[in-house]
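Suppose a colleague, Dr. K., hands you the sequence of a protein chain of 206 amino acids and asks what its three-dimensional shape might be. Before reaching for any lab equipment, you can write down a predicted structure in token form. Begin with the sequence itself:
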Amino acid sequence: MLSSRLMEINGHKVNHNYLTAVGLSFLIATGTALTMPKSPYTGMQTREIKALSDDDVTQLQRGAGWGLALPAELNGMPGPAHVLELKDQLELTPIQLEKIQALYDEMKRAAVQLGEQFIEVERQIDNSFASASVDETTLRKLLTASERLRAELRFVHLSQHLKTAKVLNDQQVSQYNQLRGYASDPCRFVPEGHDHDMYRSHMGCD
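The predicted structure, expressed as tokens, is then:
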């Protein structure tokens, strides 16, 4: 229980309870400030384009998938890039290999071009906010352009998955999904590019 004694400070009598309460409030406020969690965006302010990481930019410039084809990939429809990586395991015929390579080349050309355009529009959006020169009309135009390019990128990647699946037979599609780690028993195969021991440990295979 707090004491009700009076203390004299600079000639003034102050209730001890009051001082204690003020001190506790200060400690609580200071402690809260020190333990307040940082924003999840901390560090992103140094990016050249705030909405895109360096890895995002690299993937877009290379015409990589950037996760845009997940609806196809994770629903059993192979993509040309990974089929080429697994061509030996899938035992592609010369004709199949030629067709898949053509699909990949077509996809990469289109994706690189669209990716560069998408990066440029995102750069314009970023710069317009950095310079405080943006207005609603311009912003709407930039956002519309950005989303249109993103949709075109998704179409390029997803449509090539559709075409790739038609080149392979059912057994190859099934084997592809097993090799990529999408089989019902994920421990049966270790996906290409994964460390064997780390993958099995992560999936709880041992």
